[in-house]
Amino acid sequence: MTVQLKIDVLHEPMLEFSNGELDVDPRRALPLSGPSDNRGEKVIRLGFVGLADDVRAATEWFSRLEQFMPAQEKNSQRYRDWPGLKSALNARFEIDERQKRIIDSSKYQLLVSEAHRGQKFGELVELFEDAIASLYGDEAPDCIVLCIKPELGDLRAANPGLSPEERHALEMVRAEEESDQLALFQPTPEELEAASALQTMADDLLFRTFYRALKARIMSDNQAVPVQIIRRETIDRPDEKGHSHATRAWNAAVSIYYKAKGIPWRPADLPKNVCFVGVSFHHMKKRGGHLVYASVAQAYSTDIEPFAIKGANIDHNQKRDRQPYLDEDQASGLMEQILNEYEKRAGVSPDRVVVHKTTHYQPEEETGFRKVADGRIANCDLVWLRNTSFRVVRKGTEEPWRGTLCSLDQHDYLFTSGYVPWWNEFPGMHIPAPLEIGSMGETDIRARAQEILALTKMNWNSSDGITRLPITLLFAKRVGELMCELSDNATPNPSYRFYI
Q: Is 352:380 a contact under the CB 8 Å cutoff?
């Protein structure tokens, strides 16, 4: 029996910056060209919330971002000097004493000690939520910086809203998820994280984290302002421990620029008026006395702001091959919502819809999606992505290049991580893990893989310019992480600015 292995290396998608300048690396391009929406100096008004010493430290650190900071990492091609906010993003921060809110230290100490014992968790979240909400209004800042101590960043508490029966059911699901991960991968931290990124995580409902609970509460307000959470050790940690202050400055500034309604870069290689959608199932929820999955759809296009949609709640028994799925009516309803929202934002219907999903499509899902799409748009591609145990090692010492597409025995594997030539390094510790990609129905897999690769460059939460997952699924994952904090009838804030 002959097995044919075909290996192709896709071209690295380009990013567009100011005046149509193109590059693959944001940290290299931004000081040379400026952000893609550059229309002159952008003034970003910052608010600050936290304990007195944390607000003082955060204010001083963000003031330093106006100045040059040298990168201390060894690879100067990947880790570039921070040139200062004006040179990097043609922006400046406006810091006003009236936009600071100080958390009462005595209340904080009492509540945080109780929260670590599983009590007063909600009151602790409310303490910070009230301080943040007091900055809303006509003179609200563009972004609110919340500086927190490690004890808050690491805080998680058992979910008190679960009955013993529900907790037992979730623990069984969690054990099943962990078993699936170990069946595919050697249990290195990097590979386990990669596996979990494409799974529903029962653990997210079993436990509440301060960060997730606060984010969910904040975005539910009609006047909400995006929040940038900074852990105190990010400010205090010396250069030689972890990323240097220059790299931390790059990541924080790019994220805040986007949250302040800026666009650092755009994809240059994606077709216009195409709606890319990520569909995933997240976090068993409590609803009417039993557990359900919440379906989430996230849409991205070069023409409009990314948006999120909450789909149907699905009974936890609606599974096939241990995976939840949409029935025909649920799939039709979700596609109807997506197209209606796109048309409302863009003013026209998309020419094409590409749906990304983390599991194989069931016949009911294909029928439901296509029934709506075929009557309204020219083409609909149903693409799935999943983790795999497939690995490739290059002859010599280098890992497979990012963008490598391997075809073997009618299976296709895309390396969205791997050796990065413009950095001259592989940013990982183990052999890179590809994503297996396929489709329900005929499509050009190479073209779909090229689109996926471009969509891995649209995460403005980091200045690296690349992620393992496309924004469609990365965004849907982050929306899903907050679903368990929302009430059954609550709709998640559609804007991606609240999730990064």
A: yes
